[in-house]
């Protein structure tokens, strides 16, 4: 019986994730390009033919159409099913963590913002304020409603996250005479702090810097990129935040055994 409710919860939360994922695909194309929401998903991006409802089923349509538009054969970006699948996984993971609760609703918003920010930052090297600043506000608001974090842990998290990165950015600019961390990264870490609390900041910085170094060095070796080639840091921060959300307590104990 317990196993049954468990699998049902996973199935339903994943289905919610699939539906929201296809909406996020629309947001991702729309936000930086200022395109209307309606145009994107209900028309082919290449031939503009209106799509039928069965061309819009998350993941399934992509597989059945073998990744091509049913009318003109233009390739559909793998980004569509990928984002739907990742959103489903994030929603299910958040459900495993919080169950059906207000916290689940709030934190699916948080992980969804992180996903959309990641893709926009990868594609355009920007993090829209609509996502990061709104995320800070909603994160602080959420802390009043959920039991996992207090409002002062949230506020301190936002201040600490933004503050540390602001200090690093100013120091780096002074010595290297070029921009290292963008303003978007500063606001993103403030947002993460608002949702995960001040306790998360150090762990998230360590995880994302480690991931960023590994990926940055690999890219340099593979494509002979120089040290100056900018890779967006937002995706690593987002990944660090998700790792902390799901495995933070365990990592905290492992990294900082003295604290507590
Ligand atoms: Zn087409």
- Whole-number mean pLDDT: 87
Helix content: over 70%
- Per DSSP E runs of 2 or more residues, the count of β-strands stands at 0
The largest sheet is: none
Determine Rg (CA atoms, Å).
20 Å
Bound molecules: zinc ion
Please report the distance between the alpha carbons of the first and last residues.
37 Å
Secondary-structure element order, as H and E?
A: HHHHHHHHHH
Explain the overall architecture.
The protein has 260 residues and is mostly helical. The chain has two domains: 1-89, no CATH class; 101-260, no CATH class. The chain is built from ten helices and no strands. It starts with a helix and ends in a 5-residue tail after the last helix. The chain binds zinc ion. Zinc ion binds next to loops. The site of zinc ion has 8 residues, from loops.
Keywords, separated by commas or semicolons:
260 residues, mainly alpha, binds zinc ion
What's the topology here?
Blueprint lengths: L1 H32 L3 H6 L17 H5 L14 H20 L3 H23 L4 H15 L7 H26 L6 H14 L1 H26 L10 H22 L5
Helix pairs in contact: 1-4, 1-5, 4-5, 5-6, 5-10, 6-7, 6-8, 7-8, 7-9, 8-9, 8-10, 9-10
Bound molecules: zinc ion.
């Amino acid at each position: 019986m317990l196993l049954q409710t468990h699998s049902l919860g996973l199935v339903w939360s994943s289905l919610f994730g699939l539906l929201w994922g296809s909406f996020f695909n629309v947001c991702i194309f729309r936000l930086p390009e200022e395109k209307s929401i309606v145009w994107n998903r209900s028309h082919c991006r290449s031939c503009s033919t209106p799509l039928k409802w069965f061309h819009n089923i998350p993941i399934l349509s992509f597989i059945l159409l073998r990744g091509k538009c049913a009318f003109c054969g233009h390739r559909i970006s793998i980004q569509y099913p990928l984002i739907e699948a990742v959103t489903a996984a994030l929603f299910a993971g958040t459900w495993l963590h919080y169950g059906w609760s207000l916290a689940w609703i709030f934190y699916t918003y948080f992980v969804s913002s992180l996903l959309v920010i990641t893709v926009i930052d990868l594609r355009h090297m920007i993090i829209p304020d609509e996502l990061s600043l709104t995320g800070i506000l909603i994160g602080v608001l959420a802390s009043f409603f959920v039991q996992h974090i207090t409002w002062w842990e949230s506020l301190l998290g936002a201040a600490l996250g933004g503050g540390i990165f602001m200090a690093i950015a100013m120091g780096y600019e002074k010595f290297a005479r070029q921009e290292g961390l963008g303003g978007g990264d500063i606001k993103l870490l403030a947002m993460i702090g608002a949702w995960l609390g001040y306790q998360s900041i150090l762990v998230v910085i360590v995880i994302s810097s480690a991931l960023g170094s590994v990926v940055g060095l690999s890219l340099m070796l593979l494509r002979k990129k120089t040290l100056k080639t900018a890779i967006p840091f937002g995706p690593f921060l987002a990944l660090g935040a998700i790792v902390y959300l799901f495995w933070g307590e365990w990592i905290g104990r492992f990294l900082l055994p003295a604290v507590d």
